[in-house]
Amino acid sequence: MKKKFQCVFEGITKAGNPTLLNEIYTELYIAKGTGEINQEHEIRQIEAASRKADRTDTSIRQENLFKPSAERQEPIRTVMTKGVAGIGKTVLTQKFTLDWAEGKAHQNIHFTFPFTFRELNVLKEKNFSLVELVHHFFPETKEAGICSFEDFQVLFIFDGLDECRLPLDFHKTLILNDPRKSTSVADLLTNLIRGNLLPSARLWITTRPAAANQIPADCVDMVTEVRGFNDPQKEEYFRKRFRDEEQARKMISHIKTSRSLHIMCHIPVFCWITATVLEDLLKSKKKGDLPNSLTEMYIHFLVVQAKVQMVKYDGGAETDAHWSPESRKMMKSLGKLAFKQLKKGNLIFYESDLTDCGIDIRAASVYSGVFTQIFREERGLYQDKVFCFIHLSVQEFLAALHVHLTFITSGVNLIEKQKAKFPKLNQIRPTQFYQSAVTTALQSPNGHLDLFLRFLLGLSLQTNQSLLRGLLTQTGSSSQTNQETVKFIKEKISENLSAEKSINMFHCLNELNDGSLVEEIQQSLSSGRLSTDELSPAQWSALAFILVSSEESFEVFDLKKYSSSEEALLRLLPVIKASRKALLSCCNLTRKSCEALSSVLSSQSSSLVELDLSNNNLQDSGVKKLADGLKSPYCQMETLSLSGCLITEEGCASLASALSSNPSHLRELDLSYNHPGEAVKLLNAGLKDPNWRLDSLRYGETYCGIRKNPRPMTAPEYPVRPLVVKIQYMLLEPAGVRWLTPGLRKCKCAFYLIHDNKAALSSITHHRCYSCQLAIDPNTVNKYLKLSENSKKVTWVKQCQSYPDHPDRFDQCQLLCRDGLTGRCYWEFEWNGRVDVSVSYREIRRKGNMNDCMFGWNSQSWSLSCSDDDGYTACHNNRQISISSSSSSSSHRVAVYVDCPAGTLSFFRVSSNSLIHLHTVKTTFTEPLYPGFGFSLFGSSVVLC
Ligand SMILES: Nc1ncnc2c1ncn2[C@@H]1O[C@H](COP(=O)(O)OP(=O)(O)OP(=O)(O)O)[C@@H](O)[C@H]1O
User: Fold this and answer.
1) Is this complex's ipTM strictly greater than 0.90?
2) Under CATH, which architecture does the 554-700 domain have?
3) Which of 33, 464, 647, 668 is most buried per CB count within 10 Å?
4) pTM for this model (two decimals)
């Protein structure tokens, strides 16, 4: 057993270069109890592996797999371990077995019997008893005369359920209890898994996620998921792989320069591919050529393999051309096989499948030459040879390469059956070819062509084609074609696609190097076209993966552009970590988000230096979590805004304490609209400390005017270092109180509750704490606007109203409210027809030139136009921005939030009591703002809520 498992198969074994498992084995992150067994196709879950270990799942070490835990006291019989392709399931089972065989672990187990479904498939037609099956695979047990396992602690490992071709029928298979009674292998396994056979045995089944539900949930006691490597584990992998420290260091720093590569290395098989590719690239000193997209990575891999073949087996020099006529021919045959089998959904092939595609298995080159690296030969016990590609993604890549090659050399579109042959190249344009590929992949119910499509589109890029020079003798499509394909994909995204399909379309844009990818994702999420409620954790991970690995670097990450929710924040955490500045204000965040952000702050690899968390319900408990992150020596945070986060003295004290541990980074801290109380003294003391970098502290007892507030207004201490220290003290403005008080009354969110009932606050949408009741200024109302319902409703009517002439009255069909805003305000209204909501300076013209008067058409006003026909359009100074939002007709309620000092004006759609962000204006407001409404369709109306 030791001998069998001490080497790991990596495709190079046959080249006489075995890899010792113990030397390369790197700890993997295994999450416990990751939910139900699901139906998804595994390829679409590849990106899920980029999920970080820092999420809330519990991890489990392999040595504890069968140990009862605090949550589960009963013994564990069957463990199912899921994980996407290449994530390390097989290697994990091998390591487990090797540790056992070497006496290092699991010594309570008397016998470990590791099986793979690949081997068992070959025995499909044979009959065995359980004892015979064990004797067959482990003849030592027969030689030792062991014919009964009931009295031993036995572990059966079944690796690769996804590859199982045995008909496991858990409902119809007859019960068998006798381990000495013969039956088909499928029935044996079914009885073993159901616990009819050897109930005292333990079972460990590994599988890719898509195949997990072949086994009924009640036969499985625990589900675990291999998540691959986290960041430190990635580095450890390269250090183990390259014993030469300098080489390992170079490798790691190169991987870190490419964000996408670094992310892909969550998956061990990518680490291996990367190591292979980089080893070669570093030798050739082409340091600028690091692969960035998936397609590029696989092209490099292929080129490296061809080169290795040339050098190792054909006696060539490294500088020789990598592609000989034979290797080109072989690539063609392998591509054909890959595509043919992919269409059928096959991952494992038989000799006849190879012959069909013109691959002569007797020709040594198939399994002793370059293709050993790509193509793996498995030998079943009965000499039946089965073959598969070293990784499913390699099969998908070769299939795409084949389809691409066929099209550019002969004009044949292999994807669309009905248009099989075109004698002349020009009968189908490249654009049509790629469009047909997109359409076909979208039609596949299980997404089996998704990754294939990504590769195919990636191969359409000239840059990628030139990497394959020598294999591709002709190059195809132009950048014009690529642009047309991008346009086509964007049209598809705007149709009603499922989340899975949309995500794959984003991946495709990424492979096509399209710069508007991030915007597309933002639009889909913020408009509700891609509903955040329906996204599964794996789909969120996929989105985060695309965003982080996209070419666009995130200088500023604005959560509102995706979804103003805690869920979105938690799911897009890797993107935040990769950004320099994160705008998370008004996003309904709570303590939970702080916990996650704290891990980002304390992470060595985080790029974040500016964080705006204002107007979230974080409270002291959340801020304490943040303070834990701030304390970390790795935290580089320079600007932190926690304005309006319901923080009291306790929270502020924790911030002060964090800053005294790590004082040298934070420059600006905004604690305005909170209750820092006495803790302000601690922060002020810090300001006097020469070790602190803090030079801007903003706070203010803005709410102290509120009734029943027990906290007396404390005068701020002014800094003693006026040159270095700048304190902005926000004075209580009368207008602020006026606007705030009704709002507080409305949402029952008075701050005096803060000491008595913190929990009551948590459910309140934070914006609404700033609700204000608008009062229309009757002197401004146009004469064709009728006020009703106690001046809460305004309608554009035919009949001229008998309002007196007034210099403030608009000639246009619009009006202003009475009171100017200077602090933070929030209001909602219902609209009908075509209505503009606006804020403007008092000076806006009332009469004369239309542009000077109309909301949004001049520099004095900002507006949002709401219409059933055209959706929402933001306008300022005559510049319009059309906002896509899923059906403006579904909800006619709109909310406006303005933070005058911060210079932000946000518009939201209100839908079932949640706010869907439409648009935010960031500017500097120089004067008080007056809310107003304009009407551009006869009969339109507005009701103030
Ligand atoms: N823990 C590990 N340490 C080092 N390398 C690893 C580890 N796990 C996996 N690898 C590398 O990744 C490759 C793929 O791993 P493995 O075959 O175990 O994946 P898998 O999850 O079983 O995938 P599949 O579902 O395709 O069978 C291995 O050949 C090895 O190179």
Assistant:
1) yes
2) Alpha-Beta Horseshoe (3.80)
3) 647
4) 0.55
